[in-house]
Structure formats: structure tokens, C-alpha cells
Amino acid sequence: MSRDELVERCEIPRGNPQYVETECLLYFVRSTRIDNSDRYFDRLYAQLLKRVLKRLPNAERAGGEVESYSIGEIRDRMFDRFVTLLSEDHHLYSEKLDFFEIRFDSAMSRLRVDAERKVWREEKRTTGLSYDDESGELSKEVEHAAGEYDPFDVAEKSSTNYRLRLDAAIDELPAEQIRIIEMLRLGIPIDSNETFAVTIAKTLGRSEKTIRTYRDKAYLAIERFMRDGDDR
To answer: Do 102 and 13 fall within a single domain?
Structure first.
């Protein structure tokens, strides 16, 4: 079977008798390490990532109305970890991917457990914040308080020590909040009415409401870090 034919076989959807199991697809992707064909690797890699994305937890609640912060963060961590493992293995064999090649779904389940532990550990840092019991969003009072606090406005007028502590506070945030805060720091708007404008919502593929919620959580965590210091 030629390479083109193999790629076409790997594109066949589940349910078709000719469907290629993901364990086999991963084997083919890993095998490209020794045949030095980037084009072949790229095509198989794209198919593999599509399958990985389908196995990530759904980041939306029933009806698709409200995105779950925790699940969204877990998805990101799972995907980033898998891509990292695959990238490392593509350059130099790593036994860490062997289990994926034997029992892919079980390996993804383990990846989820690891991601959940890390995300929930980080969320404990914000348990002192007030949330609405029904929506799980920040309460109006807390949201208002966060909206009045701008760590970068203060940073412009503060000492070098403050800016160093601000950087340390940002480093303590969950990964997606860090991305949002750094983009705000660069002056990138959350959303825009201009069609071709670069925005945080477009860049991260999140709704404006979700970005604002993440921003408010981050600002509150930063404010508490700056107020209480490391011993909190």
C-alpha cells in the first residue's frame, strides 16, 4: 500500500469496515521518525489530532450555553500534554507513548485524571472567591470589584519591586488565565466590532463572556496575591 493510500485509509470514519484503529494510526505517525518524510508525517499527524480532540471532555454544559472553566482547562492540559509527548517522540523515541499505542482510550483516560488533579489543585487557590450557586460564575459583587482593579495601571506608577511581585502573581495563575492576562498587558482587546481586528476572544476561540470571567478571576487572584503575599 502506498503512503497516499494509507493516509486515505486513516481518513475513513469509525463505523466503516476499513476504519484504521487509533492505535495503528499512532504507530504510523511514530514510524515517520525514521523515514524522514515531513509531508507524510503532517498528513497523518492531522488525522491523529482530530481523533485526540474528539476524545477530550466536552467543555460545554447541556445546551452548549455556558462553558465550564474547569473542563476547558482540563481539555487544554490534556491536548497540550499529548502534543508535547508526540513532539518529543518524533525527535527521539520515548516509551511514554507506548501505552497510547497499545490502549489509546485508556491512556487518554489517564491523561484526563492527571489534568484534573492539576486543575482542581489550582482551583483551590480561588475557593475564597464568591460564585453564583446556579451559574457557577463570579457573583455580581465580586465581578464589580474585579472590574475596578487594574494591576497594570498600578504597575505603571509603582516600583520595580511591585512589578516583580506582579510577575510572580501572574505565574501562579492557571495557564489560560496567564494567556489572557499577558494579551491584556499587550493592549489586545477582549472583543471588537471590527471584522479583522485581533482580539483575545478570537485568538483563544472563547466567547467574550468567558474571557471576561477568566479575566475577573485572574484579577482577583492577583489582587489577593499582592495583598497577602506568598503566605496565603
So the answer is: yes
Distances (CA, A) of 110 to 22, 80, 116, 160, 174: 16, 14, 10, 43, 20
User: What is the SS3 assignment for 18?
Assistant: coil
Helix ranges (H only) for 158-207 are 160-171, 175-185, 200-204
pLDDT for 136-175, tens place per residue?
Answer: 454 554 444 445 567 776 655 567 778 888 888 888 888 8
Cβ–Cβ < 8 Å for 82, 88: no
C-alpha cell at 140: 455580581
pTM of the model: 0.53
Q: How many domains does the structure of the chain reveal?
A: 2
What three-state secondary structure class fits 154?
A: helix
Q: Are residues 155 and 122 in the same domain?
A: no
Whose grid coordinates read 482530530? Answer: 50
Q: How far apart are the first and last CA of the chain?
A: 61
C-alpha Rg value of the chain to the nearest Å? 21
Tell me the three cell numbers of residue 46: 492531522
